[in-house]
């Protein structure tokens, strides 16, 4: 009975993880969300009954410690797979370049603080809170969802000057993952940064400016990954993520991976 904890499970990829994992009744599936009632309601509507939702906020380390205690009661003291999906993204400012912040220094500082609080510090809060449970597992896998926007090589090739704060936070996150992997390798704990691919999880249709900003990103995806045929669905992404997570070993710990690296054809995605 493998146990899974999905952090940031209220919607999008996080909720799709719950949906995917719940298909196997042998799994112990736990989702963390700031407002459990809303997720419980959605699960009931989708007739999913074998998922537990626990309240926690990524930027509130005390709530995460409490949540870890509640999870321990459900899993008998261990967690096999910790999937840190929760992240902050402000679609309204993604298209802003570094120089566009000139004259808006306060906005730049607040933007960076918000991204780093959730996408870096919040992730560390999560890992530190659940590490005692991971240590008790025989599988010991921690996966943090990252992005190609945090990959310097990808950004340079695609000539992406926008996504400033988001990309910076993901670059820092990748380094944090590497630091954890170095510290935990002797314990057999695998820590992986994984890009889930290009997925449209926006709640509203993108603006004309946002669409224009996506074009060079999509072009570079096509250059790097020959089988890329446009954005994939959350369900397709989770299926690919699972494949990567199941195959990684301790020698892969600390790496930043993309789901597209494991998709040899469109059949692998669809």
Can you walk through the features of this model?
Helix 1 packs across helix 8 (234-247) and helix 5 (152-158) crosses helix 7 (208-224). By secondary structure, the chain is α/β, with parallel strands linked by helices. The longest helix has 31 residues, at 105-135. It is built from nine helices and seven strands. A seven-stranded parallel beta sheet has the order 3-2-1-4-5-6-7, with helices on both faces. The chain starts with a strand and ends with a helix. Helices cover 48% and strands 13% of the residues. It is globular, with a radius of gyration of 18 Å.
Secondary-structure topology with pairs:
Layout: E1 3-7, H1 12-22, E2 28-33, H2 36-45, E3 51-55, H3 61-75, E4 81-84, H4 105-135, E5 141-145, H5 152-158, H6 164-184, E6 190-195, H7 208-224, H8 234-247, E7 256-258, H9 266-269
Parallel strand pairs: 1-2, 1-4, 2-3, 4-5, 5-6, 6-7
Helix pairs in contact: 1-8, 3-4, 4-6, 5-7
């Amino acid at each position: 009975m493998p146990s899974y904890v999905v952090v940031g499970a209220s919607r999008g990829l996080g909720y799709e993880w719950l949906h995917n994992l719940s298909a196997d009744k042998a799994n112990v599936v736990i989702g963390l969300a700031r407002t459990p009632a809303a997720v419980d309601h959605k699960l009931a509507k989708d007739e999913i009954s074998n998922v537990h939702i626990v309240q926690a906020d990524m930027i509130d380390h005390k709530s995460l410690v409490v949540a870890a205690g509640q999870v321990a009661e459900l899993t008998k003291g261990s967690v096999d797979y910790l999937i840190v999906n929760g992240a902050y993204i402000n679609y309204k400012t993604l298209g802003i370049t570094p120089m566009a912040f000139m004259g808006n220094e306060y906005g730049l500082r607040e933007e960076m603080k918000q991204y780093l609080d959730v996408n870096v510090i919040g992730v560390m809060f999560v890992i530190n809170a659940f590490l005692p449970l991971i240590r008790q597992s025989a599988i010991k896998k921690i996966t943090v969802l990252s992005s190609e926007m945090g990959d310097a090589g990808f950004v340079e090739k695609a000539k992406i000057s926008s996504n400033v704060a988001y990309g910076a936070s993901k670059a820092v996150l990748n380094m944090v993952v590497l630091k954890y992997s170095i510290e935990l390798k002797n314990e057999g704990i695998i820590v992986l940064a994984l890009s889930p691919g290009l997925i449209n999880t926006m709640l509203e249709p993108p603006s004309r400016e946002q669409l224009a900003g996506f074009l060079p990103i999509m072009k570079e995806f096509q250059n790097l990954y020959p089988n890329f045929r446009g954005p994939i669905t959350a369900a397709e992404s989770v299926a690919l993520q699972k494949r990567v997570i199941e195959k990684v070993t301790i020698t892969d710990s600390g790496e930043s991976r993309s789901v597209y690296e494991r998709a040899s054809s469109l059949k692998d995605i669809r």
